[in-house]
Amino acid sequence: MRKNLLAAAAVVTAVGCLTLTACNDDDAKSGGASPSRTAGSKPATSPATSPAGSPASARPTASNGPKGAALAFGEPSRTVGAGTVGILEITPTTVVYATAAGRTAPQHGTFAVVTLLEKSLSANPADEEAPAKGGGWRWVSADGQSIPAGNGNAAKVVLAKYRHSGGIAPGASQMRVKVFDLTPAQAKGGTIVYTDGTKSDDRWTVPATDTGPQAAEVKQQLRP
Fold it and tell me: Residue 91: which of 219, 204, 214 has the closest Cα?
């Protein structure tokens, strides 16, 4: 289903590509980066439980976690925009682990702060699918525990430079951030998973140590 939606959205891209595959070819000819695989090749799995589905203060619980191989951290992936409108390219860029964010302490011991570069690749604004509609982000630890973004005290962490939401204009990009409140054991690397409006998952392996070009800036914004 998502493959068909991506192809349909690509028909009306600002660069005049007739299909998503044609867009990838154009990127390659111009020397630009292109994903190693299309979003349509990812296996569909059940959507993550949203923060509203369980108390924010609840301790993260075990689940089976996502299936299939994950992309390397820093590798882009294309997915359908919210409400199956537009094409969104998502690239996790930085992860920082912190025991405090300003004067806010994590409920479970460690904040994992992940920055994302998101681009709209179609002629329509594109946005992330909302958790209330079955989309959104979660962290899956090495032992299979699944934790939604914004759990515990993570929702209280504010990084002003990355505080963006809403549709991204065609051809534009934004830096965004997701924060997870983890136990020390869960914060030893893992997998971040994004579920789109077609209930398909994008996955990336997260390093166990601070990594990425925004690391210093994120740490600065986390200081009191």
Answer: 204
Q: What is the pLDDT of residues 16-72, one digit of tens each?
A: 433 334 334 444 333 443 333 333 444 333 333 333 333 333 344 333 344 458 999
Residue type for 17, please? C
What tokens appear for 44 in the block?
């569909």
pLDDT band at 95 (very low <50, low <70, confident <90, very high): very high
DSSP assignments along 108-164, one per residue: SSEEEEEEEEEEE-SSS-B-PPPGGGT-EEEEEETT-BEEETTTTTGGG---GGG--
Please give the structure tokens belonging to residue 17. 């590509």
- 136 forms beta bridges with 195
CA-based angle 50:96:129, to the nearest 5? 30
Q: Which residues pair with 178 in a beta bridge?
A: 114
